[in-house]
Amino acid sequence: MTINFHNTHFEISASKMAECPGASVPEIVFAGRSNAGKSTAINTLCKQRQLAYASKMPGRTQLLNFFHILKEGEPFARLVDLPGYGFAQLAQSSQSHWDRELGSFLAQRISLRGCVLIVDARRGLLELDHALLDWLTPRQLPVHILLSKADKFNRQEQTQALRTARQAVQARVDKGQPITIQMWSALKKQGLPELETCLNQWIFPEEPGPTTDSGTAS
Ligand code: GDP
User: Fold this and answer.
1) pLDDT, tens digit, 9 for 90 and up, residues 28-57
2) What pTM does this model have?
3) Whose CA is nearest to atom 14 of ligand 1?
4) CA distances for 73 relative to 9, 68, 117, 172, 178, angstroms
5) Domain range summary for the chain, segments of one domain joined by +
6) In principle, which of 8, 65, 153, 213 could form an S-S bond with 81, CB 3.0–4.6 Å?
7) 37 CA distance to ligand 1 centroid (A)?
């Protein structure tokens, strides 16, 4: 089945594990530094203008925002938007709450199938991106990295950015962590088929996916 991501709707915000909906369907988390382009990536994937920006509205910013994908009115999968990390002004107490709850979520949520990590291609993987990858290491959750804002780069720079990002995760891949990387531009819709193929395979692993290899790298 090819997923129609347009059928994605905001479901609920949770500020702690206990508030999360039941782990009843496959889930994919979206993570990244603030301003990396995560909301724009979710909106582009779902062909909606405001879906994930709504996560930034007051009352929806606490921890996890759940979006369910419907087929014939029934949810069969979810996207989970994690708060953007990297803003130093978060109070110490909020930070430890965030770390604790998010750490538990990523470690224990049985329905997670993969993580899309959005990284600004101009900045590359930074310390907090590696910290997130560390959290996902014990359960070997597949990670698909979008090197975002590719439209800011020419072709040669994109190749270089991809190479640098691959090198940055090589030690993890060598240890068996499943990490794939692609260039991404929400502005130009560059990389959308690759992203859709990846998510389809995570949600329906039993179905053979279409073969695309442009810009995707293990
Ligand atoms: P978030 O904080 O990670 O959710 O980031 P946003 O999705 O809000 O994007 C942060 C900024 O980057 C906004 O000004 C977006 O317009 C811009 N942006 C996001 N994606 C792209 C892209 O593909 N290309 C360019 N040039 N800018 C982008």
Assistant:
1) 999 999 899 999 999 999 999 888 875 566
2) 0.91
3) 35
4) 11, 10, 29, 40, 33
5) 8-203
6) 65
7) 4
